[in-house]
DNA sequence: ATTAAATTTGACACATCTGTCCAAAACAAT
DNA sequence: ATTGTTTTGGACAGATGTGTCAAATTTAAT
C-alpha cells in the first residue's frame, strides 16, 4: 500500500501542474520557506492550509483532508498498540455526534 | 451515545476504587496538580500516562488507549468535515503497515 | 468549629512549536 | 560562466504547551 505522506502528496501535485512554491505559498499567505518545509515533512501542515491548497492545486477537499488526517494520525499515534481499535471507536463517536 | 472524555473516564474509575489523586499521581510520577488538570480536561494526558494508569486503576490497557485516542482525535480534528473518511483511510494504512 | 486530607488555582520556568527572514545552494536558460 | 529563478537551511522571535510549586479552597471527620 502507498501510505503517501501529506507533503509528498501536495508536492507531487504541485509539480504536476507546474506551480512554483512561491505561487502556492503566496496563495496560502505563508512564506515560501514554510511551504517547502511542509512539503518535505520537516514541519506539519496547519489545518488552515487545507482549503486553499485544495483550491490552488485543484484537488478535492475531501481527498486533501483525508490525506492530511491519515498522515497526522500515523505521526501522532504511531506508537500505540491499539490504534486501530481506538480509531474505530473514534469513528463511532463522531458518527453518533454528527446527528 | 456517551462520548466520555478521557478525564471523566479515569476520574470515575479512580473514585470507584477510592484512590486519592495523590496516590495515582505518585504512581505516574507527576504532580497531583497535573493529574487533577488532566482529569478535568484542563490539560491533555500524555501518552506516557496510559500504561501506568491502566495498572494502578486496574483497567484494560486497550480500553484506556482507545478512550484516549477517541478523545484526542475529537479534540484535534473536531473541525474537519471529512473526518470519518479520513479515519477510515488512516485505519487502512495502519493495518497495511502492521504486516 | 477545628483539624487534617484532598483537590484546585494561578504564577512560574522551561521546552517545544510555528512561521519569518534572509542568506546560501541548486537549478535553468542562454 | 552569468544571470535569474526556485528551493533549502538555519537563526531567530513570539506563541503555545507541559509540568511544578506553593497557596487557597473544598471536603470529610470528629
UniProtKB/TrEMBL annotation, chains A, B:
Matches recorded under Gene3D superfamilies: lambda repressor-like DNA-binding domains
Taxonomic lineage from the root: Bacteria, Pseudomonadati, Bacteroidota, Flavobacteriia, Flavobacteriales
Name recorded for this polypeptide: HTH cro/C1-type domain-containing protein
Molecular function, one GO term: DNA binding
Residue ranges that the Swiss-Prot or TrEMBL entry lists as coiled coil: none
Record domain HTH cro/C1-type: where: 10-64
InterPro entries noted in UniProt: Cro/C1-type_HTH, Lambda_DNA-bd_dom_sf
Amino acid at each position: 500500500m502507498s501510505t503517501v505522506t501529506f507533503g509528498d502528496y501536495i508536492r507531487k501535485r504541485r509539480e504536476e501542474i507546474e506551480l512554483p512554491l512561491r505561487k502556492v505559498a503566496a496563495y496560502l499567505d505563508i512564506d515560501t520557506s514554510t511551504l517547502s518545509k511542509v512539503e518535505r515533512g520537516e514541519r506539519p501542515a496547519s489545518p488552515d492550509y487545507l482549503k486553499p491548497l485544495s483550491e490552488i492545486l485543484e484537488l478535492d477537499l475531501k481527498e486533501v483532508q483525508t490525506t492530511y488526517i491519515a498522515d497526522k494520525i500515523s505521526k501522532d499515534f504511531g506508537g500505540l498498540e491499539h490504534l486501530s481499535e481506538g480509531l474505530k471507536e473514534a469513528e463511532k463517536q463522531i458518527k453518533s455526534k454528527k446527528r
